[in-house]
Amino acid sequence: MRARRCFWSIESLATQSLVIFVIRTRKAPWQSLPNPLPSRSGVVLIGLLFPLTPLGPLLGFLEPPPGFYLFLVSAVAAYLLIVEVVKRLLYRPAR
Questions:
Q1: Cβ atoms within 10 A of the Cβ of 7, count?
Q2: Using CA atoms, how far apart are residues 7 and 94, in angstroms rounded to an integer?
Q3: What is the pLDDT of residues 42-63, one digit of tens each?
Q4: Which one of 20, 30, 47, 50 has the lowest number of neighbouring Cβ atoms within 10 Å?
Q5: DSSP conformation class of 75
Q6: Is the pLDDT of residue 1 over 60?
């Protein structure tokens, strides 16, 4: 149970930080880059690395297995793709 909470928090931090990048503009996210893009990347990077630090186990985090990172990239990419598709559907002109 503890492992699920730990891994869920990493995935949640990544999706919450990156979905803002997708929904903040009507354009494709890569066509209109935000000014503080490194700060969003930094938040995700800290979330990924935190369980590997000495503080991670003290706060109940477990070191994710290597397969988790493959899942994380796949799940976050799929989620962001779905958000982009829905955003385009909502912003399309009314007929």
A1: 18
A2: 41
A3: 788 888 888 888 988 888 888 8
A4: 30
A5: H
A6: no
Q: Which two tokens stand for residue 11?
A: 């995935």
pLDDT in tens, 16-50: 888 887 887 777 776 676 666 566 677 888 888 88
Across the chain, mean pLDDT equals 82
State the distance between the two ends of the chain, measured CA to CA, in whole angstroms. Answer: 49
Structure tokens at 92: 């399309």
Burial profile 69-94: b = 16 or more Cβ within 10 angstroms, e = fewer: eeebeeebeebbeebeeebeeeeeee
CA-CA distance, 54 to 42, in Å (whole number)? 19
Q: Interior CA angle at 59 toward 55 and 64, to 5°?
A: 80
Alpha-carbon distance of 3 to 80, in angstroms, equals: 24
